[in-house]
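Submission sheet (multi-component)
Chains listed below:
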Amino acid sequence: MIYIIQNYWREFLYTDGYNMTGLAMTLWLLVSACGIGFCLALPFAIARNARNPFIWGPVWLYTFIIRGTPLYVQLLIIYTGVYSLDVVQHNVALNAFFRQGINCTILAFALNTGAYTTEIFAGAIRDTAFGEVEAGRALGMSQFTLYRRIIIPGALRRALPVYSNEVILMLHATTLAFTATVPDILKVANDANSATYDSFNAFGLAALIYLCISFMLIFGFRRAERHFLAYLRP
Amino acid sequence: MFDLAGYGPQILAGTETTIELSVLSLLVSFLIGLLGATAKLSKSRALRGIATVYTTLIRGVPDLVLMLLLFYSLQIWLNDATDYFNLDQINLNPFTSGVITLGFIYGAYFTETFRGAFLAVPKGQLEAARAFGMGAFLVFRRISFPLMMRYALPGLGNNWQVILKATALVSLIGLSDIIKATQDAGKGTFRMFYFSVLAGAVYLVLTMVSNGVLLLLERKYSAGVRKAVL
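Outcome: structure written.
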């Protein structure tokens, strides 16, 4: 354990001397995937509750397919599959984008968490109390104002406990990035394992770091819940 | 209909391996979950402590990290044990390690599901059972288990879907499952996209089928429960 910490602490935390690695990379993956996923999920969740089947249909299909397949398969399709297509190889911009493992990883993660988050937010929007919308209408709010002032803030508050779960699951999912040559914590642990054959300590150290991040996320979300859901406290 | 370029048998065998792996892992984690829930609800402080540490640790660490940790360490521990008792070396194949690790990991999630479900069983049912003179095991078998299953089913269904999707990770520790088969086919024919999408389609079919089975199970265990008509 001491040997691995002495030799690999820099890689585990932030850099191998050239690139961002380890903890910094894992957090960057988590933040970018969840950020993009959130921005995708908000409009999709509203579309998911639309009355027109041509609007909610495609969104339903998207979440159904993403939630029905493993993230690893999605990553494989985007990382090895898409890049093997002729269209992508002959287009300069697409080629440059899909050649980088990190781009593919973030794209796959964002699409994945976007689908789960869409369903979470859509459920929360569906649970909006009838009276709230009625009151908003009675005050003469337009559809847009109604969503901006009443429906979205309430729905995001209600979704917070479930959303925090999704973020923690996403943290656990970022470990897949190492299969696409992204140097995250698990990649460093894997390197340490190959170099020292001290599997238990190499992966154990990674497990400890992930455990700390999980606990910090849980703590942060608890604080956020206390702030945003204060009106629900007895 | 599909052009599998001669890789059909491998892909079929891989699909079978995936299904077997997930069903066996489900069984293992189901049993661990029942034990864990019993420990968490028991009067003994030590048992509760162990179960709490187990569920917290496992649920805080990514499954892939645990899988690699256990996969590499299990063999070393097993070797140490066999050396100590002067036995022949037992080699774990990726399938067995996959079942053990997946079962161990998802047992923690099942523990939480079952704990909540056991708590939801009405106290009067258990009192009535005891009043009839049933022993602890009979109460479990006839009363608390069937009643608990109704509350546990939605969570169970979720866990099953998660296990099914987690089996995809086991190809990373060398199991020839559906992922391995389709990746080999893709590399052999230079059609990575087609075969990766095929793997996704197989998983999609599996989740769709299990959704149907869960619906049937839910209907069975909700027998005698009236739903509010809205």
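Remark: Chain B is about 80% helix and 0% strand.
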